[in-house]
Amino acid sequence: MKVLVIGSGAREHAMVHALRRSSSVEEIYAAPGNPGIGQAADLLPISVDDLPALAEAASDLRIDLTVVGPELPLALGIGDDFARCGLRLFGPNQRAAELESSKVFAKEFCQRNGIPAPEAEVVGSRDEAVVAARRLGLPVVLKADGLAAGKGVLVVKDEDDLEQALTVFFEERRFGDAGDRVLVERFLVGEELSFMVISDGHTFVPLATSHDYKRALDGDRGPNTGGMGSHSPAVLPSGTGKEVVDRIIRPAIAAMEAEGRPYCGVLYAGLMLTEDGPQLLEFNCRLGDPEAQSILLRLEDDFGLVLRDAADGRLARKAFNWRREAVACVVLASRGYPGSIHRGDVIHGVEEALALPRVTVYHAGTALDNEGRLVTAGGRVLSVCGRGANLGEALTVAYEGVEKIHFEGMQYRTDIGVDSLALLGGA
Ligand code: GLY
Q1: 290: CA distance to ligand 1 center in Å?
Q2: Hey, which of 286, 291, 295 would you mutate to test ligand 1's pocket, going by the most ligand atoms within 8 Å of its Cβ?
Q3: Nearest atom, ligand 1, residue 291 CA
Q4: Burial class (CB in 10 A: 0-12, 13-18, 19+), 34
Q5: What CATH architecture does domain 2-93 belong to?
Q6: N or C: which end of the chain has fewer CB within 10 A?
Q7: Backbone torsions φ then ψ of 389, nearest 5 degrees
Q8: Which residue lies with its CA nearest to atom 4 of ligand 1?
C-alpha cells in the first residue's frame, strides 16, 4: 500500500514508524511532517487544514490509505471530503468527530445514552456560569465547547479561580467562537486514565493501556500541557479495562451507530476512575500524544492492515498483539512551554541517543535551519522512548536517551512513571 499520514507531531512520527514496520506498506508520504518523519517518509508541504490540497495529493499519488493524526482536519470534515472523492481514509467523519469537536454534543450524548460522566450545565454567559457553579458547588471545571488546542479546560477550585476563569471565557474570549458555549462540570476526584480503541464503525478493538502525564512539572504540578510523558502498559486495578469497555466504550460505539453517526477511527476516552466506577471526562477522536509513542512501539501487528481494515468497516479481530515489554516516553520541551516558547535553539545529541540500544526518538517541534542544523520549532520538541522488560527498565533506557540530548532551555519531567513504579512495588 501507499499510505499518507497527516500531521507533524511525535504521534505522527510514531505512526510512520509503525507503518514502516508493516509489511503491507510500500510507500509512506506525510503532510506536512517534520525532519524526523522526513527520514522515513516523503514529505508533502501541505498544511493539515488544507483539505482540498490533501485530497488532490492523495488522488494524484494514488494513495491507498490516508491516516489522520490530529483532530483539526477530522473536525473540519476531511473524512467526508475524502469519501466524496472515493479515497480511503482512517478517521471519523465530521459528524462522528463531534464527540471531540463539541464538548456539549459529547455531554448530551452521554446523558441520553446512559454513559457515566460528571454532571454539567451548558452556559453562554458569565451570569449563567456563576449560577451553574453555585448550584454544582466548587470546585468545578469550565470547558470550552469547541476545539481550543487542548487549552480550553480550566479547573476552578475557589472564588478567585472562578473570577479569573469567567474573565478568560467571557471577557477576554480567549477561545474565540469555541467558547461561545461553555460546560460547567462537577469536579471529580480519582485516578485519570486514557483508554483508546480502534473502531470500524460497528466493532472495536482496544489498544494497549497507557498512562499520560499532563502537568508540566514533576510531582504533577504546574500548568496542563499536551502531555509530558507516557508509559505503556498502564498500572491498573484488575478488571478496569473490562469495566471501561462495558460501561463506556461499547455503549458509545453502539449509540453512535444507532444515531446515524457510525464511529470509524480511534476513539480516545479520557476517564476518571472514581469510587463509583469510571466516568467519562472527554472523548477525543484520534490517538493521544504522547500515549501513541509508547503504545505503537509495542504493537506487533501490521499497523497498515489494521488501519485499512478499520477504514473498510471490516475489523475482523478480537485483539491486537503486543510485545510483552514496557515502553516509557519522556517529552523534551522548549523553554517557555506551555506558554510562549523560544524557537531556533540548536538540538544536540539525537544521533547519540538513537545509537543506544532500545532507544527511539520521535520528532515533534523540530526544523532544519538554513545551515542544515536541527533546531527547536515548537513547544514539545522530541519524544524519547525506551523499551524494557518491565517499566523500571524502560524508564532507565528512556532517561539514558534523554541524557544524550541537549538544547538551550530544554525542559522535561524527571518523574515519568515514578507513581506507577510505586504501585508496582518498585518493579
Ligand atoms: N495526551 C492527551 C491527548 O492527546 O489529548
Answers
A1: 7
A2: 291
A3: 1
A4: buried
A5: 3-Layer(aba) Sandwich (3.40)
A6: C
A7: -65, -25
A8: 288
**Grid cell at residue 247:** 460501561
Residue 59 Cα to ligand 1 middle (Å): 31
Question: Are 283 and 66 a contacting pair, CB within 8 Å?
Answer: no
Give the three cell numbers for residue 66. Answer: 490516508
Q: How far apart are the first and last CA of the chain?
A: 41
Q: Does domain 119-186 have CATH number 3.30.1490.20?
A: yes
Q: Which helix (H) or strand (E) element contains residue 308?
A: helix 303-311
Q: Which CATH superfamily, name and number, covers 189-311?
A: ATP-grasp fold, B domain (3.30.470.20)
Ligand 1 atom at minimal distance to the Cα of residue 214: 1
Class of domain 326-424: alpha beta
Q: Ligand 1, residues 194, 210, 329: which to mutate, most atoms within 8 A of Cβ? A: 194
The residue whose C-alpha atom lies closest to atom 3 belonging to ligand 1 is: 288
Residue of the nearest CA to atom 5 in ligand 1?
A: 288
CA distance 106 to 103: 5
Q: What is the dihedral of CA 170, 171, 175, 180, to 10 degrees?
A: 30
Ligand 1 pocket at CB < 6 A: 212, 226-227, 284, 288-289, 291
Instruction: In whole angstroms, give the CA distance from residue 29 to residue 42.
Output: 5
2-93 and 326-424 share one fold: no
Going from the Cα of 227 to the center of ligand 1, the distance in angstroms, rounded, reads 6
Looking up cell 538513537 gives 354
| Ranges of each domain in the chain | 2-93, 119-186, 189-311, 326-424
pTM comes to: 0.96
